Automatic annotation (TrEMBL):
One annotated GO molecular function: zinc ion binding
Binding site for Zn(2+): 58, 93, 96
Name of the featured protein: Cytidine deaminase
Key words of the record: Hydrolase, Metal-binding, Plasmid, Zinc
Domain (CMP/dCMP-type deaminase) ranges: 6-135
Binding site for substrate: 47-53
Gene Ontology terms: biological process: nucleobase-containing small molecule metabolic process; pyrimidine-containing compound metabolic process
Catalytic site: 60
Reactions performed catalytically: cytidine + H2O + H(+) = uridine + NH4(+); 2'-deoxycytidine + H2O + H(+) = 2'-deoxyuridine + NH4(+)
Length: 139
């Protein structure tokens, strides 16, 4: 399905907005994620921490859950926004790189932003080279 084009800046803007809804009272590090799915729809997520610390989860995991629940199965692009404007890039953690890999090819762009907007774009292959993925399991 092809609707109006969703540009990198649109995805980053959506991630900036949803970041406000993060539940991060322990780390105080709010993160927002926006995923462009194969249907052209955008799925949002924020990090959700928990008083039992290990039960918290990342913004990317929330957005992937929203995508799957809505029926999309492939990721076309990702935006992640976190950290202070001009500070360290908030790239996805190792676990989330693998979560994204489940639904995305090596050339899928991962846009990293902060409160000021888009900072830098990587491909999934750059962030997770020589990855293990669904094609490794041939049943
Ligand atoms: O890419 C990232 C990096 C960190 N976090 C969350 C996890 C935790 O709630 C907080 C601090 O690590 O930020 C994300 O959601 N995505
Ligand atoms: Zn993560």
């Amino acid at each position: 399905m092809s609707g109006p084009q969703v540009l990198p800046d649109d995805l980053v803007s959506a991630a900036i907005r949803v970041r406000e809804n993060a539940h991060a009272p322990y780390s105080r590090f709010k993160v927002g994620a926006a995923i462009l799915g194969e249907s052209g729809r955008v799925f949002l997520g924020a990090n959700v921490e928990n008083a039992a610390y290990p039960q918290g989860h990342c913004a990317e995991a929330s957005a992937i859950g929203a995508m799957i629940a809505a029926g999309d199965r492939r990721i076309r692009a990702v935006a992640v926004v976190g950290g202070e404007a001009g500070g360290d890039l908030c790239t996805p953690c190792g676990g989330c790189r693998q979560r994204i890999r489940e639904f995305a090819a090596d050339d899928v762009p991962i846009h990293i932003g902060d409160a000021g907007g888009l900072r830098r774009t990587f491909t999934l292959g750059e962030l997770l080279p020589y990855s293990f993925g669904p094609t490794n399991l041939s049943f």
